[in-house]
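Subject: Predicted fold for Malonyl CoA-acyl carrier protein transacylase, 328 residues

User T.R. writes:
Posting the sequence so we have a shared reference for the thread.
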Amino acid sequence: MSIVESSNLVAATKTAFVFPGQGSQKVGMLADLAAQFSSVEATFAEASEAVGFDLWQIAQSGEGLNQTEFTQPVLLTASIALWRVWLELGGVTPKFLAGHSLGEYSALVAAGALSLGDAVKLVNLRGKLMQDAVPQGQGAMAAILGLEDAKVVELCQVASADGEGSVEAANYNAQGQVVVAGASAKVEAVMAAAKEAGGKAIALPVSVPSHCSLMKPAAEKFAEALAQVKIEMPRIPVIQNVNAEAAADVDALRKALTEQLYESVQWTKTLQLLQDQGIQYIAECGPGNVLSNLAKRLPNIEKAFPLDTQSRMEDALNAILVAEGKIA
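User M.O. replies:
I've generated the structure tokens; pasting them so everyone works from the same file.
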């Protein structure tokens, strides 16, 4: 079901949907929903035909699931399968959409800006280019907890000034939670400095240092592919990662998607913008509950819902319909 087909649904005034990025994948995702809704496997079949390999098999077996080039199309497809189930069940059309990193592509498909087939091919290529940009073991990412954003940036600058290589703030996920990315030795230096400064540091199990300058070569190649893909203006506003704004036109949208590979994800600002726009309910349209847990930290967000199981989907559907005044 496309967004056009859902035009008979009343648009929400208090609800936004967010779409997760890499790291939310898990073996067996959406299996229970697939048993109840044929649209789940149909969505995976549609996406699999576009990329030329079986995304459902990867999602259920786990074989290749943590390889970036496969992870990205699998996660995007899972998010769109959940989106279609939501619409099939009569869920409201959200006021805003946003996606974390890879999730931005899921949001754009849901908004009618990209076709599912084009999007899975793009993110498959995106994953390959990201993987090829930095030799295995030379890049790393880590979550720094309990320090102010400015302090983390300062630690990155100090570490980068010493010798070759750099490290940068990659994801501003929430107050007191910043992910850094860059050369492995530099990331380790920031982790050590963060602990000395009273914070916590957790190495992330990733093979690609995303959203830092090491990804600029990948971005240059990706921009060429992106220029060949048909993109329309989103029919639901999509808040983009690089500037926490909705694109003014398609050219700006393409530019932001290219820059997203090497610029920081402004998720803290994205959630703040949603709150400032009167959003009170957030639904996480993808596997897991990472983004809904982040949203719960905001004072004006009354409820954040994961949608990745039938029971979670039904809870969110009923609560949001009541909150939006569609049912008593």
